[in-house]
Amino acid sequence: MSGAGGGAGSGEDKGVTMRVEVDVPKCVASGQCVMIAPDVFDQREEDGIVVLLDERPASELHADVRESAVVCPAAAIRVVEK
Amino acid sequence: MKHVVVVGASAAGLAAVETLRREGYEGTLTLIGDEPYHPYDRPPLSKQILGGQWEPDRVPLRSAADLDALGLDLRLGVTATGLDLAGRTVALADGARVPYDGLVIATGVRPRRLPGDGAERAHVLRTLDDALALRDRLGPGRRLVVVGAGFLGAEAAAVASGLGTEVTLLEPAPVPLAPAVGERVGRMLTRAHHDHGVDLRTGVMVAEVADGGVRLSDGTLVEADEVLVAIGSVPNTGWLEGSGLPLGDGLECDEYSAAAPDVYGAGDVARWHNPLFGTAMRIEHRTNATEQGMAVARNLLSPEARKPFAPVPYFWSDQYDFRIQAHGWLRGHEEVAVVEGALEERKFLAAYRSGDRVAGVLAVGMPPKAVRTWRQAVATRAAWRDAVGELVPEGA
């Protein structure tokens, strides 16, 4: 989570760089992130644990990635924005 | 709106305050929690914390820096004691009166108790302190009786058994969790307990916690060094009694999760009408707490563009060497069909029917794509006849 700053609209994200981190041992394989942001997250076939597809997603994906981080039931996704 | 108060500093309350800030709310934001800790995650309490794989530093939901960045009026270790709905004020145990324009109620639930189960005699498992207290008493040579074979009791039994504790699991129903997951899946869980050396006794009524164990309704004493009472939860609505808010099984909310103008409920405490399933529900699961906290924050900020809260509920439970995952609303189902895999191998996917629709899906050990596909059938309320086939009542 990046905390309070900034608005929610993806249009404001031009020029913002986002880095996504996943805490794999925390992941509980719910798949919520894959349903929200399938271009950024996937699940391992054998146990459903998260696979990070795109560590630095493009700005049009930022809103979905933030949503994934918030909804993750294991709090296993961290988003760093600059 | 200049002052929003969120009562309850766990997953739902945290999601509410974060969403308010993310959506541009810049006014005063008070977050009140009765525990002395920053918001932390509860599912690991009966899993990694109880099992000793994690120390408490792994459970905070946000870093101190991330919380600081929210600019909160954070009041921890203080209980809300009353609500003046007309005067728009929350009363706190420390004597403070906190005014609000908007209110989110996310006070959660507390464990249901048994006669005689004072703290010196029995454990419950809701808070970090509860989990650490129980963890200290588990291991080889110890005897634990768990009262209640629901998800929490079953997880705790599995973890305690894995640590070498001698575990007896007492359950009043003939098949554990049958109302939640159906008879066949319930029997699969029964076998798992037996396979792992947990002494599951069903059809057993516990009268009270007594010295040296628990007393059954027939007078028998089941001896134990430690007792864990896991017989469900009670919504924390006592502080709202007399406020005028509708209380029943929790705080009664409408489809927007509102209980009164500018007053919303979120998380375990809130019962609301879910239009996707056409029924009222109160859900004590981790994902719902976050989703409902987010939804009520948005509705509070945009009264002209409110959206009904219509999620597909989700839960998971780790038991022994397998994980149960379920999407949808399984309660009150009329039919269960194993649509992929096999129950006996503990790799299967079961679909649940209510009316003529797919109401839910429960999976163990299945590939994630298959689970997501069936979850989509729930989300679109697919016709059972199309997704599964002919309608056959359970037990037929």
CATH architecture type of chain A:
2-Layer Sandwich
Strand content of chain A: 15-25%
Kindly estimate the percentage of residues of chain B that lie in beta strands according to DSSP: 25-35%
Find the biggest chain interface: A-B, 27 and 34 residues
Instruction: Indicate the CATH architecture of the largest domain in chain B.
Output: 3-Layer(bba) Sandwich
User: What is the residue-averaged pLDDT of chain A?
Assistant: 86
- Count up the domains of chain A: 1
According to DSSP, the number of beta strands of chain B is 27
Mean pLDDT over the residues of chain B = 96
Number of helices of chain B: 10
The end-to-end span of chain B amounts to 56 Å
Counting DSSP H or I runs of 4 or more residues, the number of helices of chain A is 2
What composes the largest sheet of chain B?
6 strands, mixed
Report low-confidence residues of chain A grouped into runs of 5 or more. 1-11
Task: Give the total of domains of chain B.
Answer: 3
* Radius of gyration of chain B, in angstroms, nearest whole number: 22 Å
Question: What percent of residues of chain A adopt helix (DSSP H or I)?
Answer: 10-25%
CATH superfamily of the largest domain in chain B: FAD/NAD(P)-binding domain
Model regions low in confidence, pLDDT < 50 over at least 5 residues of chain B: none
- Structure class of chain B: alpha/beta
Helical coverage of chain B, percent range? 10-25%
